[in-house]
Model the fold of this input.
Amino acid sequence: MMFRRILLHEWRTLAADATVWVVGGVFAVAIGYGLWNGVRWTAFQEQALAAARAEEDERYTRLNAQLVELAQPGAKISPFADPRNPSAFGGRLGPRYAALPPAPLAPLSIGQSDLLPYYVKVSTDARENIVSATEIENPSRLQAGRFDLTFVIIYLYPLLILALCYNMLSAEKEQGTLAMVLSQPVALGTLASGKVVLRAGVVIGLVLALSAAAMAAAGVDLGAPGAAARFALWAGAVTAYGLFWFGLALLVASFGRGSTTNATVLATAWLVLVVMTPSLFNLVATGIYPVPSRVELVQATREAAEEANKAGSQVLARYYDDHPELATGDPDQAMTDFNIVRVAVNDDVERRVRPLVQRYESQVAAQQAMIDRLQFLSPAILMQNALNDVAGTGTARHRHFMAQVDAFHATWRGHFVPLIFAKRTVDSVAAVPSFTFDEEPMAALAGRVAAGLAGLALPAVILVGVGLRRLGGYPIVG
Amino acid sequence: MISRIARKEFTELVRDGRFRVLGAAVLALSVLSLAVGWKSYQDLSAQHRSAQAATRDQWLRQEKKNPHSAAHYGMYAFKPKSQLAMIDTGVDPYVGVAVWMEAHRQNDFKFRPAQDRTAVQRFGEMTGAEVLQVLLPLFIVLMTFAAFAGEREQGTLRQLLATGVRGRDLALGKALGIGWALSLVLVPATIAAAIAFALSSGAGLLAGDPVRIGLLVVSYLVYFVALTAIALAVSARVRSSRIALVALLSFWFANSVVAPRLASDIAAWLHPTPSAVEFQKAMDADLNDRTGVERRLERRRAELFQRYGVDQVDALPIAFSGISLQEGEEHANEVFDRHWGALFTRYEQQNRVTQLAAAVSPMLAVRALSMGLAGTDFAQHRHFTSAAESYRRDIQRILNGDIAMNQKRGQVYLADHTLWEQVPEFIYEAPPASWVLGHHTIAIGMLALWMAAACAWMVREAGRSRVE
Done:
């Protein structure tokens, strides 16, 4: 009963404050703008993927027509442009796109999707050549980052919470109303809880409602498979992050200092946790596990290619040792076949540079492992990971995609290499493998996000618990 | 009088425990970021230098082959690290480090270092520039917000003004005192930077370029003067130190955190770029358009027929295959200039919008200038791109010219190392500081404007500051 009265009273006080409305309005605009930005970017990606599909379809129609034409007696074509030649088809003529479509809630977070490739053109070419193509983007823009909903949630949302909470007890004390209220049969813990619960309800409810409304207005389909579950995870993360900051505000309030001190302490906490720790952790991770410049890989690949080319026949002999199933024709004659030797040389080059590629990958993995541990000290990093994961724009889903690209690359080679070795021709485009992206299982995603949620919720609970406990010794007067 | 006010302000600040903690933290972060920047510069510049030497070596070591095979083999250009990237990495993590210079194609730069990092990179890198552009302004705000408002609350402003000191002198004295205190952090940080420069290998790009370093120092000083003046003006104008703090913190947040993103969004909205698929498709369509090449060949053939007085290709004393390869290159070069040129111009238009947005956020101006002077902005990336591309075109001209001169009909022509040696080494020189300034006139103007306006505002507000 008393609790409800506190809630009602707090609501009236807040609603009567014009600043609250202004701040709330600014925040609403920021949410709408952030989401709109995400929607535009997702639309751009979808358009690019459609253009890629159209380009591929057009090319395949042409290749098919050529194949039909070349089946006629007397038809002629330059050997380099001959689609019947499996080396040419699998290499230059017929590459297919492997596309990572935006996940259902992609507009919620732009994440790493502007930096990491979301479509790659797969051919028999070396893996490093295939995956190094990137989307066009102004580097200054990549550097600045985007004003997306994730930015609003990570940076602005805590500020809103702190602005509403920094003086929730100290102001009453400074006005002298705190002693009056507590002369009634109400505990300070109840009063403080009432204040926090109302503010948390209003702010978190506002963020969720506004985001949902903005999504509906922007035409984000919550009925898409997995979308509802993703949104639930997103809402969970936003709630946990909000509770963390409410807990922090409550703890700081429990020390009974003045409004100015509280504001300073909370602003410093925000600065340290949101602005400084992430950059500092990045600095530490890249300092301890530096990734060498990729120029070394470029040079090593060239060096390896030169050596493999020189040792062409030996390289092929070794390739036959590894792939006896391909030794169908006359091995001596194969030694003179440019296309066959090239397959073996490419394979050899990849084998030679593999350790170097693994060194890059292992350094990045070591950085990631370090950040994965350190993130529990930084709610901002936890939040970034969780929000990117939910939107499908994080590193995990991209790794999942790249693993499928690698598998598809192997399938692609598995299709064309035997044709090259058997000196057979490509007769129809129907048998050429194509790529479909398998969405990562919801359980894996939910597991990762849940770990992040726990990392946010646990400190929040501790902060609230300690804060409420400390309120017992709150200096109500003086 | 001014010096006395400055001394009072300085003493008060350095006796404040908060100042000492914050100052130590900023200094520690500067030194840490410098150390990591120094290490990464040492490693990367050595890697890039040795790779550049190796690609040259590979070129010279080529066996006997047809010049056009050598053209296809090509060479790599590796972007040299700028020594000043130790302080400001600029767009370096977001542009590729290597470009393959081969026949027929202007390739894109590959391998953006940021792709080999975790997503945390996107929070921003803790570089010297980050400390100077984000943390130091906050430090200034915290040191300054109470300068007038605090004295007003304590009632000392009334006493002070009763001594007959002019508001302008008061503001100036306070600004000097704050600057003096700030120098306790900035001077050691600058010395640390100087030591880092001195200890780094001297062969890097822009190594020991005193003009750029000097201009960098001046740019940041101008920025700090502007911020101090703004903070003092706000402190003199508003009623309480609390309001001053809230107003200044909001300004800091909008200026340092929100503005870069918002400005870049608006820039991209005004000047959109195509997707890589569309870009490639449009360029391929132009490249594959044979009519342009045919026309060029026709003209060239007629020219040669006239010069040598013959009427068929076989009768020419030079190999037409070399001519035809070169004409193909010339045609493609026009296409590349058009498409890549349009794209890069788009980026520069976007960056110009960001510089213009400095009208509302001075940080955007100092950020652009800092990157520019450090040699890590897009304009200088483009400068390197152009140098590499024109070198690629030189290679093609030399090789195709050799084919035209030496290829004999019906024979296999193989060139040897004497031809490879005719291709000069690729040596890149960074543009001079004046070039950088020319590319950042908007930013320079904005920064100067901010400083002038801020100082004028400070003097005005200090002059009419109310005592309670």
User: Anything to note?
Assistant: The first strand of chain B starts at residue 75 and ends at 78. Chain B touches chain A through 77 residues (CB under 8 Å). The two ends of chain B are 23 Å apart (CA to CA).
